[in-house]
Each structure stands twice: as structure tokens, then as C-alpha cells.
Specification:
It comes from Funneliformis mosseae. This protein is mainly alpha-helical. Helix content is 94%, strand content 0%.
Length: 48
């Protein structure tokens, strides 16, 4: 059954998990961006 489903609709099975993962990744990235922004400020101050 799994092989038949993949051969008939490969895009749906591949896209559904990909859509779910980015939502979790976006939350982690947003947290990292906040930390990276704080680090960028310190680096910019050191360069200036």
C-alpha cells in the first residue's frame, strides 16, 4: 500500500512532512536570530 501511494501521489507524502518541519524550524530559527542579533550588536560595536 505504501509503494502504491508513493507512486500515485509522491508530492503529497513528501510535502506534508516538509510543511510540518519548517514550522518547528522557524521557531528555532527565530530564537537563534534573537541571539545572533545580540551577538551582531557586540561585533559591530567592536568593529566600530
Amino acid at each position: 500500500k505504501k509503494q502504491a501511494a508513493k507512486s500515485q501521489e509522491p508530492t503529497q507524502e513528501i510535502m506534508e512532512p516538509e510543511i510540518e518541519k519548517p514550522s518547528i524550524d522557524e521557531i528555532n530559527i527565530s530564537k537563534k536570530n534573537k541571539k545572533s542579533k545580540c551577538q551582531d550588536k557586540t561585533f559591530k560595536r567592536k568593529k566600530i
